[in-house]
Design brief:
924 residues, alpha+beta, Immunoglobulin-like, 9-stranded mixed β-sheet, 7-stranded antiparallel β-sheet, 22 helices, binds zinc ion
Length: 924
Amino acid sequence: MVDEQVRIWRWSRRTLAVVDEWVEDHRWSMNMWKSDSDQEELRPWSMARELPKFSHSFLSLYCEEWGPISSFLRVACPVIIEKIKGMLGVFQWTAHIDPLNYGVFIKHLSAQMIHSVSTSHQINWRPRLRGRVICCSMELSFYFGSHSSYSFMGIFFCLLLFTFFRNSRVVLADSEYLIGLGSYDITGPAADVNMMGYANTDQIASGVHFRLKARSFIVAEPVGNRVAFVNLDACMASQLVTIKVLERLRARYGDLYSEQNVAISGIHTHAGPGGYLQYVVYIVTSLGFVRQSFDVIVDGIEKSIIQAHQNLRPGSLYVNTGEVDAGINRSPSAYLNNPASERSQYQYNVDKQMTLLKFTDNEWGPIGSFNWFATHGTSMSRTNSLISGDNKGAAARFMEDWAKQKSFGTQSHSSHVAASGTHNNQQGFPRRVSSIIPPVHENSNKLKELVSSFKASGGMQLSGPQSIVQRVRNTFSQGSQQNFVSAFCQTNCGDVSPNVLGTFCIDTGLPCDFNHSTCNGKNELCYGRGPGYPDEIESTRIIGDRQFTKAVDLFNTASEQIKGKVEFHHAYIDFSQLEVTVSSSEGKQVVKTCPAAMGFAFAAGTTDGPGAFDFKQGDNQGNPFWKVVGSLVKAPSKEQVDCQKPKPILLDTGEMKLPYDWAPSILPIQILRVGQVVILCVPGEFTTMAGRRLRDAVKEVLTGDGNGEFDNNVHIVIAGLTNTYSQYVTTFEEYQIQRYEGASTLYGPHTLNAYIQEFRKLASALLTDQNLHDQGPQPPDLLDKQISLLPPVIVDSTPSGLHFGDMSNDVPINSTFKRGDVVSATFWSACPRNDLLTNGTFALVEFLDSSQNWVPAYDDDDFCLLFKWSRPSKLSAQSHATLEWRIPQDSLPGVYRFRHFGASKSFLGSISYFTGSSTAFAVV
Ligand SMILES: [Zn+2]
């Protein structure tokens, strides 16, 4: 045994020496690639050409030490080669390599092989490289994608697979994962489109507070399973979006990503453009389907997953939990109907726990975090018209900026590509007050002189959308390191409001009626108040800040490492007619769920948005989509009325199929597992108690049978509003009260029990490694049936003599502002639907640096800068863009100006791009 250890030690050292030499030899060529790495597409081909030489060295060292290749390998080779060729077909065109990672990759690869060989020789010995020893055979196939010399590759690959097969148990028991994060802009149309969430016909987007993102993580076993989780700054996931994203992933990666292991979850902001869902009832107020909303979300999710995939590197995960005070129960009377014995187990009537995952790259340190915490995305009210990620989007923005200041992730501050007509500073600009960098322009006379020398530029044409890449934050990672990604995900927020001051009548200022949330019998007067009341942006900031602050705390103190398998299970369930076994005082009983239906209390809305969805007769005059579908409303059958009791049915959506399905009946449920963290993906909004019951049921299954795989320390989180949307889920007892959440629990009183029954099955499958590939019925793809009634942009114009980008209301000449002041300027503009400026910006605050260059300081992704768009009248072709900046306390004193970007449409339909800047002003 000792001999064997010495042998492996000797062999691994020699192999490592070869690897080091190889990497050293190729450093020059890697640097060459670095210099032109602004081209996104790199050239893996020449790298692949080098690989056989390396594998040859490796192979000969192996044979020298252990003799000729075993007979097993000779038999297995042809089979394995066939398998590899199959994989290559899929991977061929996805070859995308960061050359800077290549040396690292080769090192990891060889270290993994040494590890594999040593363990396959059944030696109780840990190679000294434990800790960085990891690689993924899937990734390896990239390198073969375009190479023709299969024979060498085959042998090399066989050796790799052979050793993996022989010790896969050992590899899997290792605590390490490959981790990749990604983020991409999904900001939809900032004009004319109804906002998703409040279903308020009058809430039409007209500007941007800050941008929306799709943020993804992928965790993969070195060889084996992987899961991808996407957090979407949107009201909820959409079945159609999920279907189309999965189609694209399949085309790109084959079976690597599917509905089984990809989850797409919405944060529940009520301030994002709607029209991207497929079922009729969710697109009434958006005048049907809105292609532009839909496309930008599908594109952004796909790109964020691609980024995460390309960023996969060896890393570690940590989990931490703590309490946040950022929500109150908005239906306490329903909560109180839950059994007293159950309620007494909990201190609060909402879940205050935040569960945070911290992602750490083995080489670079912290690269991001995802957390789950329950509170509605309704800090911004039902009359807000600015696109916003609400409190969770704000928290994510704060934390990513915090990480940048801490220099996690990308080291460089920012990179600015010059827009035509502007000067720029490639060095980047520190946006916040720093003790290292002294304030520029200290002399106030000098400041005044500078301010007076910069007048508004007047509107200028730009050559194309590529000219509008000027922004403060990078989309793509610079150099070798990825950007820090921080996501604030939604969980069982069904009855949780961020309007924590309570509910008050807007006429009297007195608290609303406790049971009905009414004022003198009227629900439309009762509103919840956020902590910044009456300023909803301030409320959003405060609730966002509370989540951000706790997340940073949990991030900094996370010490519990995540260890164990990566697994997943998924099933499609027909919730319209599911038999559910429930226990009652009379013993076990089989009950059924019902086709979807919405109760009367649904129309009353909630205290976050009263009177949310008015379907009453006579009120449908203004909505053309409602005119199309309203006549198709159908009376519920007797069976349905009985099934849904005590819910009085307002809309029998589950039985309404014209012009196409009004509500979903087939829902996806899914469990993702990474070590001791288990994520339950549900397609709806569970109330506090409903969520607790589901988590407890799953925990009971996982920790019950004494199989030892999970102990009491398993972390179970619910990912709400995931993969599709089917409104609310209350407990049976809360359902009896029929508040908004009960009225919106679609499948009848036993909806929650149906979820619990089906999730128990998924949880047992985790324990038994059972394959649940019987997927049941598939949800429909209704893309071709969608009706869109939102009129297109016809044309944009300016008054004669004026240009797009000219000032309509400039900053006063020679003006000076203090931090905390609000300064604004208005430009002649065009409809933002002409181009979403994805990864660009409509608004900039520029700063005059010490060498008299204008550099971007704040853009439309900043919390302090608002882009407000408006038309003088509904049918006018003219429009205004107002940029409003609340000067932050940490901004640098100096000279600033506004810059606006936009895109206009001509009569013939062509799109032109423009910009313009305001008169300069001073901040002291
Ligand atoms: Zn909700």
